[in-house]
């Protein structure tokens, strides 16, 4: 792995995890499909950058540069940015405008660029402000459907909520969640056969096809890559 990685929990239920990296060399990281929104802040020497990524349905190559210090916010299932239709953000990453080194433009307003230190709390305050302003919202139906608790909702209702918050069909999102869980278990040292069986894959070949399609790596390579999912 050509970068140092750390993560922590966030104070907001809208956030799955806050992570930080320091890039040691130039390279390319293959980000797995995640069906979630991500906000990434980068500092390199005197240059600052903000990236907003919509839900991804496929692996995405992410180039990195030695000396980068990055802070990322991976939002939780059902959390979405409401300033534009999610369909326009599926598998899309944009660099947000920065009128000044200390502020970036999002949804027509200026927001403070946070510290990229993992222990700093200003990124938590930023998420709280985005939520209070209605830029970041949460869809409980999406979260419940992924947790198996949306039985009272019709299929059509669930699909409508996924279309609004994720822009990816529920079945595909569940496939993505399962693939990411498979990689996590493989990296814990569990056997390929056990992971395939426990997560309901038809066989090991099915697991291999899904991981290659959704994470860009085979099960064996997923176990050895030593990088976060």
Polypeptide structure, described:
With 229 residues, this protein is α+β, with helices and mostly antiparallel strands. The chain has seven helices and twelve strands. It has helices at residues 122-132, 140-146, 155-165, 170-187, 192-198, 204-215, 219-224; strands at 3-8, 15-23, 27-31, 38-44, 47-53, 60-64, 69-75, 79-81, 93-95, 103-106, 109-112, 136-138. Strands 1-2-7-4-5-9 form a six-stranded antiparallel sheet, with no helix packed on it. A hairpin with a 2-residue loop joins strand 4 and strand 5. Helix 4 crosses helix 6 (204-215). The two termini are 13 Å apart. 32% of the residues are buried.
Q: Would you spell out the secondary-structure blueprint of this structure?
A:
Layout: E1 3-8, E2 15-23, E3 27-31, E4 38-44, E5 47-53, E6 60-64, E7 69-75, E8 79-81, E9 93-95, E10 103-106, E11 109-112, H1 122-132, E12 136-138, H2 140-146, H3 155-165, H4 170-187, H5 192-198, H6 204-215, H7 219-224
Antiparallel strand pairs: 1-2, 2-7, 3-6, 4-5, 4-7, 5-9, 8-12, 10-11
């Amino acid at each position: 792995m050509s970068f140092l990685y750390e993560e922590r929990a966030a104070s907001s239920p809208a956030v799955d995890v806050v992570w930080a990296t320091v890039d040691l060399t130039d390279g390319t990281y293959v980000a797995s499909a995640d069906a979630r929104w991500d906000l990434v802040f980068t500092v390199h020497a005197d240059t600052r950058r903000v990236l907003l990524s919509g839900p991804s349905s496929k692996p995405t190559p992410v180039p990195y540069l030695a000396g980068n210090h990055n802070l990322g916010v991976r939002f939780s299932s059902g959390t979405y940015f409401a300033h534009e239709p999610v369909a326009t953000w599926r598998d899309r990453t944009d660099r947000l405008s920065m009128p000044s080194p200390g502020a970036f433009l999002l949804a027509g307003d200026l927001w403070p660029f946070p510290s990229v230190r993992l222990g700093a709390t200003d990124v938590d305050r930023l998420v709280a402000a985005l939520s209070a302003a209605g830029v970041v919202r949460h869809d409980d139906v999406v979260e419940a459907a992924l947790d198996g608790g949306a039985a009272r909702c019709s299929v059509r209702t669930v699909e409508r909520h996924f279309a609004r918050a994720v822009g990816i069909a529920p079945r595909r999102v569940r496939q993505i969640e399962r693939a990411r869980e498979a990689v996590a278990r493989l990296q814990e040292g569990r056997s390929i056969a056990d992971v395939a069986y426990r997560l309901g894959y038809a066989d090991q070949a099915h697991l291999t096809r899904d991981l290659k399609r959704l994470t860009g790596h085979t099960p064996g390579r997923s176990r050895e890559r030593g990088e976060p999912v």
